[in-house]
């Protein structure tokens, strides 16, 4: 089995791949290093390799690697920034500063599409990236996702207070809100959808008429209808990770 990890600032996404087929046998999301160890232990499998991408600090990443190598007696490969990978050229002036999760998502999308692509990751933050038909990364954008927008409003606006049940009920439709929860939740959702629509329009200008759109991240299903034909690919980063860190 091969263990793949996408280590964010707060959560770790993991999955186990079966042999040569690269078929995911199991996976999940955990909140701590120890929870990851426990989750993998529960699978009762022997690991022959591990690869990971991390946006954590170097110290936190090395702590996790040391733990994995000690517990599972496996070597861990870590994705690194690159100027060129699998036909994609990094578009940042300082290529090392492009987030590794964004970089691998772009590489993964280009590997799947083999043509121009718009990649939008809708998580705690939202990122978008453009890659041309010849593999040139043209840059992208970063903005707050729905969780961040919601948290900022509920934290910094004293009268913006409501519970999670109210939040869920608020999204039953998108008419103007007549309660605080409705106004906030629907407003954030409309901003999310407006951003995605705007990125699609910009892609037409930058990439021409022939390009694929890839949506990934936890809120991707909320906007899949905004761009007809968009592909929702939850494991897009893992596709790029396998290219960056092949395991024989």
List the helices and strands and how they pair.
Elements: E1 2-7, E2 12-18, E3 23-30, H1 33-41, E4 49-54, H2 58-72, E5 76-78, E6 84-85, E7 88-89, H3 100-113, E8 117-122, E9 125-131, E10 137-144, H4 146-156, H5 164-170, H6 180-207, E11 212-216, E12 231-232, H7 236-244
Parallel strand pairs: 1-4, 4-5, 8-11, 11-12
Antiparallel strand pairs: 1-2, 2-3, 6-7, 8-9, 9-10
Helix pairs in contact: 3-7, 4-6, 5-6
Description:
The protein is an alpha/beta fold and about 250 residues long. It folds into two domains: about 1-80, 2-Layer Sandwich (Nucleotidyltransferase, domain 5); about 95-105 and about 115-235, ATPase, nucleotide binding domain (Nucleotidyltransferase, domain 5). About 40% of the residues lie in helices and about 25% in strands. It has seven helices and twelve strands. The protein has helices spanning about 35-40, 60-70, 100-115, 145-155, 165-170, 180-205, 235-245; strands at about 1-5, 10-20, 25-30, 50-55, 75-80, 85, 90, 115-120, 125-130, 135-145, 210-215, 230. The strands form three sheets. The protein has a five-stranded mixed beta sheet, sandwiched between helices. A five-stranded mixed beta sheet has the order 10-9-8-11-12, sandwiched between helices. A hairpin with a 5-residue loop joins β9 and β10 (about 135-145). α4 (about 145-155) packs antiparallel against α6. The longest helix is centred in the C-terminal third of the chain and has 28 residues, at about 180-205. The chain starts with a strand and ends with a helix. About 35% of the residues are buried. The mean pLDDT is about 90.
């Amino acid at each position: 089995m091969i263990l793949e990890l996408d280590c964010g600032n707060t959560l770790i996404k993991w999955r186990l791949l079966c042999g040569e087929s690269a078929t995911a046998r199991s996976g999940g999301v955990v909140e701590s290093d120890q929870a990851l160890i426990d989750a993998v232990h529960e699978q009762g499998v022997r690991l022959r390799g591990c690869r990971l991408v991390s946006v954590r600090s170097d110290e936190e990443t090395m702590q996790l690697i040391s733990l994995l190598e000690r517990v599972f007696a496996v070597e861990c490969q870590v994705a690194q920034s690159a100027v060129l990978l699998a036909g994609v050229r990094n578009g940042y002036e300082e290529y090392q500063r492009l987030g590794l999760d964004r970089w691998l998502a772009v590489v993964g999308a280009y590997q799947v599409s083999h043509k121009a692509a718009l990649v939008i990751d809708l998580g705690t933050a939202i990122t978008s990236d453009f890659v041309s038909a010849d593999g040139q990364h043209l840059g992208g954008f970063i903005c707050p996702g729905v969780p961040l927008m919601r948290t900022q409003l509920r934290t910094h606006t004293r009268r913006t207070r409501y519970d999670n049940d109210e939040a869920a009920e608020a999204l039953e439709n998108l008419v103007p809100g007549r309660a605080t929860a409705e106004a906030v939740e629907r407003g954030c959702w409309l901003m999310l959808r407006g951003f995605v629509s705007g990125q699609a329009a910009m892609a037409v200008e930058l990439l021409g008429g022939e390009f694929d759109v890839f949506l990934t991240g936890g809120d991707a299903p909320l906007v899949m209808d905004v761009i007809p034909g968009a592909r929702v690919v939850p494991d897009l980063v893992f596709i790029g990770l396998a290219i960056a860190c092949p395991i024989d």
